[in-house]
Amino acid sequence: MAGRIERIEHAIADTARAGPPPMRTVIDALQAWRGVAEMSAVTLVADVGTLTRLTTARPLMGESGAVPREDSGGAPTRRGARYTSVQEQWCYIYST
After folding, report:
1. What residues contact residue 24 under an 8 Å CB cut-off, 6+ apart?
2. What three-state secondary structure class fits 20?
3. Between 80 and 12, the higher pLDDT residue
4. Cα dihedral: 10, 14, 19, 21 (round 10)
5. Strands 77-78 and 69-70, how do they pair?
6. Is 77 helix (H, G, I), strand (E, B) or coil?
7. Could you report the per-residue pLDDT of 6-63, keeping only the tens digit for each?
8. Are 54 and 48 in contact (CB under 8 A)?
9. Is residue 19 a contact partner of residue 80, using CB atoms and an 8 Å limit?
């Protein structure tokens, strides 16, 4: 199982490195945050998409699942926080 996970992570990293330069720039910038490694950055970019469409932190948090609720114009949508997002937050808060 560990070998399979390692192969999948390697394939994801290779695909992200071969991606368009603007996407690669965002992935590299996200890794500057404490506790955010390449897989977390790739996951966030794949999940949220183009970050420039989000004008403030509030819609980013809603899109990423970092908050349990998102109000996107219509009826409020409740989403559970995604596992990766929660792990990134814990790493950021508690890393030294």
Report:
1. 16, 17
2. coil
3. 12
4. 110
5. antiparallel
6. strand
7. 898 889 889 888 988 988 998 898 888 877 888 888 888 887 777 777 788 777 777 6
8. yes
9. no
The pLDDT score that the predictor gives to residue 13 is 87
Contact 65, 80 (CB under 8 A): yes
* This prediction's pTM: 0.60
CB 76 within 8 A of CB 69: yes
State the Cα–Cα distance between residues 11 and 32, nearest whole angstrom.
22
Q: Phi/psi class of residue 3: alpha, beta or left (left: φ > 0; alpha: ψ in -120 to 50)? A: alpha
Q: Give the pLDDT confidence score for residue 23 in this predicted structure.
A: 87
Alpha-carbon distance of 68 to 95, in angstroms, equals 24
> Can you tell me the distance from the alpha carbon of 82 to that of 44, in angstroms, rounded to the nearest whole number?
10
Instruction: Give the side-chain half-sphere CA count within 13 A for 39.
Output: 12
Let me know: does 46 contact 75? Beta carbons within 8 Å: no
